[in-house]
Amino acid sequence: MWNDGLDMMDQCGERIRVVHPLFQVEGGGSIPTSPLQLTVGRIDKKLFKALNSCWHSRLPECGNVFGGMAFGAEYDGLLYAVAYWSNPVSYHVDDGKTLELRRMAVADDAPKNTPSRFLRVMVLMIQRERPDIQKLVSYQDPTYHAGTIYKAAGWINEGARKNNGFDKSKRPWRQRKADVIPGDKVRWAKIMSNAEVTGA
Question: Whole-prediction pTM value?
Fold first, then answer.
């Protein structure tokens, strides 16, 4: 099981990538060649944080993960991608019916197109597990990413959002420094099928 005493070198090594009872199999040491070979499921949030620290290029830290849900994509006993969803950080978007993809991080040795398939499967799982959720949002840093995975998955570009930071003295309970993306960002949205059916 998870060991809080692991140092960063251990966390970024193979040992921390070994999945826990949700997926546990006898590892054969093979490497996946297609994202279709990956199995997606829920993982421990501490495990998500450790691997996000190793793999995320821009935001290796993730603040409050007490709520929400973490997912992992594994093959043959090793994780190749992790993600964390929670209520939106911005209170303007947090309406009780929306979830935000706070982080998604993929290992360098993951198969091509892993992010797209991982995102698609997570959306289906959220729709099944949380029928109350009518909308998903995620923020893209246009300096580093083109939003290709969102376009391919049929998400809607809701336009650029100016990031002016926040005043910690006014809202210290809502955000941490690790949650603030430097510079402008683009918000993408996915309307869930249950929202369309109910006319929401």
Answer: 0.76
